[in-house]
Amino acid sequence: MTALITLTGVNKYYADYHALRDINLTINEGEFFSLLGPSGCGKTTLLRTIAGFEMPSDGVVMIGGKDMAGVPANLRPTNMVFQSYAIFPHLTVAENVAFGLRKSKEIDKQTKAKMVAEALAMVGLDGYGKRAAHALSGGQRQRVALARALILKPKVLLLDEPLSALDKKMREQMQVELIRLQRQVGITFILVTHDQEEALVMSDRIAVMFEGEIGQLADPETLYRRPNSRRVAQFIGKMNMLDATVEVVDEVIDLTVRGLGSMQIEREQAPEGGQVGSAVVGIRPETLGILFEGETTERKLVDGVVDEVVYYGDMTYYDVRIEGVEQPLNIAMKNLIGRPVLEVGAKTQVIWDERSLVLLP
Amino acid sequence: MIVSPPFLYALLLMACPLLAIFLFSFWTQDFMTLDTSFTLDNYREIVEKPIYGALLQRSLYVSSCVTFVTVMLAFPVAYFVSFHVRPDRKSLWLFLITIPFWTSYLIRVFLWKVILGYNGVINTGLINVGLIDEPLTFILYNVNAVIITLAHAFAPFAILPIFVALEKIDRSLLEASQDLGESKFMTFLRVTLPLSMPGVVGAVLIVFIPTIGDYVTPELMGGAGGKLVANMIQTQFLALNNAPLGAALAIVAMLCVTVISVIFVLINRRWLKGRS
Fold it and tell me: Is the pLDDT of residue B4 over 90?
């Protein structure tokens, strides 16, 4: 894999507001890369810095080996799908898609028309060329925005929360289509999103951002299973947090977790290493279980009392109180055949396994 | 039929006077009495005597020039306020633009006389600097003076509709254009200008239509060669006591304005249709 975009020590200040804090980042050719974070974390500013709409206060942005300092947006090998889609209302669909082709004087009119038709076909809008842009639905506008950007064969396609304005069904459909499109054209995609599920589903790698800095940069599985901090763990999915005391850090880590007792975990379960002293361990709800009557387990058990039940159809989420821990444990259970939905106050046993723990600093 | 108060006062204030003018134009004035038998004599006279056609032509020419100059000057101002003024200062700027309206129209016309006159600001200035020896005479009491004065008077009317149209343009469209490879100048030509056309059309109509009917400025600034059709209408009504002929002239002028405005709007349909 070759690096396409390199950011080195990028900072951005707006008056006294520090929007980007020392960003160092490499994005590879052909990668589906996501910038994920809560609103106001700087992810859109970072995207606009790559696009050339914002200039970094200091630091270097390189695209395809070229320093982008002083290069305006119209001369960069990037194209963007805007959050509002920014479809030109005075032009037809075909005119919108052909907008960026004006400068390609060497391409004749017929070839251009063919390129537009192909681009529209690629995003599933065959025959929409003559329609007025203002008569399109949200999903169609987005497809036009995609076609308009991809027809220019950019090195990088930048997507600024492109799915946030769509309803749930449409969003899921577009996620799949974007992945397919990215594999088909092989262009680097950089997606900005605040939706952790969207980022996990679509990306090769994800940078999680908080307050202008990158909290963790990893592939989706690592990010989910081995978050490197409490804020990453809590931003991506649900995570139970338990206080712990680390006793020995050696080949393995010896620690005592409040409510669960003493145990040993592997070194890789501590992404930031581990330090003797107090710490926190995280456990995902689906790696815990409830021992129903008639079921057996070889894993470890701890007594608990059901505190809250939320029924989701395919799943039931339980909050279960265990001794010595203030915050009840959140447990996700599949509603398999023969499993009852427990009631609040029921005494139960919680199944757990130290292999699913992650030690957080 | 909706008989509501707005309908009634619209009828009283707009339709009735118009209808009266329309009726007058088919009557004749016989010294002190009004002959109310139907005749087309007034219209025949307007068509046959070249003076009326010439005045009408000059009126249309002056109005077109005023409209062109006003819109060309108003656009940059509207653009500046919309794109380069901080959002919280915009209403202040619009307020400042209306300052010329705080004084009477007549006073503004006289001020232009002071500026453009034989011993006016421009002439004495240029003579003192030494650029000219004799005062310039082509700047007062002719059509040019009328155009300058009217353009100044109507500028705020043109700025506002253009400003509103520019304000409505989604700024991400401009970024999208640049993202697709266009420079700032081409973005202006391909995105900003076409999207501001509804405002420009509005400005053109707002300036063009009332300037046809203006008679104060040509009376004061136009001299002998700068009189327009509205002055003739005024003369017919008040000086010559020939209301029917004045009414017929007014109707003809109105028809011209209507036809030109409709043609103009139809031409601009192309620009207007994309927005809703």
Answer: no
Contact predicate A321/A307, CB 8 Å: yes
Q: What is the DSSP string of A293-347?
A: TT---SSEEEEEEEEEEEE-SSEEEEEEEETT-SSPEEEEEE--TTPPPPPTT-E
Considering only CA atoms, which of A296, A300, A262, A258 is closest in space to residue A279? A258
Nearest by CB to residue B274, choosing from A84, A90, A152, is A90
Contact state of A133 with B274 under an 8 Å Cβ cutoff: yes
**B1 in any annotated domain:** no
Query: What is the CATH number for B171?
Result: 1.10.3720.10
Q: Which of residues 212-271 of B touch A (CB under 8 A)?
A: 271
H/E element, A207: strand A205-210
Domain total of chain B? 1
**Please, what's the largest Cα pairwise distance for chain B?**
74
pLDDT for the residue numbered B271: 59
pLDDT value for B140: 83
- Contacting residues of B for A147, CB less than 8 Å apart: none
The answer as to whether B199 is a domain residue is yes
In a domain, B17, yes or no: no
The pLDDT tens digits for A185-212 are 999 999 999 999 999 999 999 999 999 9
Would you call B180 and A99 a contact, using CB atoms and an 8 Å cutoff? yes
Structural domain boundaries enclosing B241? 25-273
CATH pick for A3-225 out of 1.10.10.10, 3.40.50.10540, 3.40.50.300, 3.90.340.10: 3.40.50.300
* In-domain check, residue B231: yes
CA distance to partner chain A, nearest, from residue B169 (Å): 10
- The string of pLDDT tens digits covering residues B242-267 is 899 999 999 999 999 999 999 988 88
Q: A147 to chain B, minimum CA–CA distance in Å? A: 12
* Min Cα–Cα distance to chain B from A115, Å: 16
pTM here?
A: 0.84
Cβ separation B173–A88 shorter than 8 A? yes
**Taking the domains of chain A in order of start, what are their residue ranges?**
3-225, 239-361
User: What architecture (CATH level 2) is domain A239-361?
Assistant: Beta Barrel (2.40)
* C-alpha to C-alpha distance for A325 and A328, rounded to whole angstroms: 7
